[in-house]
Please model this.
Amino acid sequence: MQHNNSLTSSSSSALRTHNCGELRAEHIGLEVTVCGWVQKCRDKKLTVFVDVRDRFGISQVIFTKEGEFFEQAKALGREFVVQVTGKVVEREFKNDKIPTGEIEIIASSLAVLNDSKQPPFTIEDKTTAQEEIRMKYRYLDIRRNPVKESIILRHKVCQLVHQYLSSRDFIEVETPILIKSTPEGARDFVVPSRMNQGCFYALPQSPQTFKQILMVAGIDRYYQIAKCFRDEELRSDRQPEFTQIDCEMSFVEQEDIINMFEGFFKFLLKEIRGIEFEEPFERMLYADAMKYYGIDKPDLRFGLKFHEITDLVKGKDSKIFDEAEIVVGFCVPGLGKQSTKVLKNYVSQARSKDIGSSGLFYVKCGAKPTSTVDKFYSPEDLTKWCEEFGASEGDLLMIFAGPKDATRIALGRFRNYMGESLGLTDKNVFKPLWVVDFPLLEWDEEEGRYSAMHHPFTSPRPEDMHLLESDPASVRAITHDIVLNGVEIGGGSIRIHEKEMQLKMLSLLGFSRESAEEQFGFLMSAFEYGAPPHGGIAFGLDRLCTLLGGSTTIRDYIAFPKNNQGRDTMIDAPSPISQKQLDELAINTTVEHK
Model:
């Protein structure tokens, strides 16, 4: 078989000369061999048209009745694996929907490399198959372009991570997967040790302590695309195993980290989506995020900023407002023109379990405002409210009342709901944001003690150090989360690098000196040998790819994800192990498998 070398594919191998997605008009007249799966087979009596698909695309192959392989082609089924040799010719009826639509292959030979059972769903871009079926047959689902392209996008992001960080003197270091269980954070996945019976490893929730030790070791700039594990409740943006872009730097302050990784994120947006940001990303204090948006990861693609009117509503015999710790809401432009039926649906949504409000009150702004609380407030009172919100005629005020923190949080959820329902969350618009200065600690009602809002190794702000004893809840941390379109995609902090300060922090979290040494003695011992000031950040790779790809679930960007129950239905895991294995591990309790 003779080939024009200038037109020979880089995918050329013993089985194929070209892939199915690269043939174009310039290949006309060339004899080629392609391999792939049968996407579709159309028998037109005198001619059989076969669409052959591989990772790169689709080529149309023609088998004529006079040809030797006509009957064999008629017998081809969907997803048969075939090898076809033939001549590239100009297509009579061109297909501008595919890159190879100008040409087709007149087959001179056909080999069936493997047949296929009838797939449980059609391998096409759009499918009606339920996710449960697609996960069970994930290897078929990956053949579909949307899933395949998601996995390729993840690959590209990983390559860009290596490119950006390596060019800035970061060193990739692998940290252990089998580590020590610690009581802070989410539940650990634990692994029994056969050689140390009665003892257990834990799978890492993050490489946090190891990357800090690498800073003590003088690595200076570290990164890793790291597997992490958390045994927690699942939803569309969580998996029991996930991947972090984990980074740490020595001899830095917060501004150095923000500048480095704002540049990193701008680089990704430009390379993946072609979006260039000239201006610095917006920054927001955690306290302001909660005050004005009711959430620590506000979506800035739309407004609906909170306004508090507590002082304006008191003393008018409205029991709900008079007893409320806070009355707060936002203004939706133009929504006051909606019907009462539509507005009642919003009231029902506000009271739903997902939002958690005790009720929604609204005001239609205009020359003579009307509201759901007209019984207690005059048009003049309501006009003052509209003025406070900066509302115009036809706008709608949506107001919650109740305990301060719970009400703001519920209103934040409702704001996100309204942004979605009003079509204000364009997935092709990107609004990145830094949220800084989170509280160092938060009170855990269930445990009756403080817990770390980020993790126990986060440094307090120096100006708040004096409050550690007297008012620990008011201490701010040197933290920086990066938020994109209402999703936290990365978070980090400046770390504690002195032993006594770390012991103090652990004491606030309820550790005795002895238990602190038992759990984290290895880290504090390292601090005694010249630990540099250091800090870092970790990005959720799965979430980052989901946002860059314009999807809604991280499962699209994980080759073999788990379902909402943490199960891999393709391989049927987790699954029981044999009694022999249990005996070797000195585990005597067996649980009936459901």
User: Anything to note?
Assistant: The first helix runs from residue 70 to 74. The CA atoms of residues 92 and 102 lie 8 Å apart.
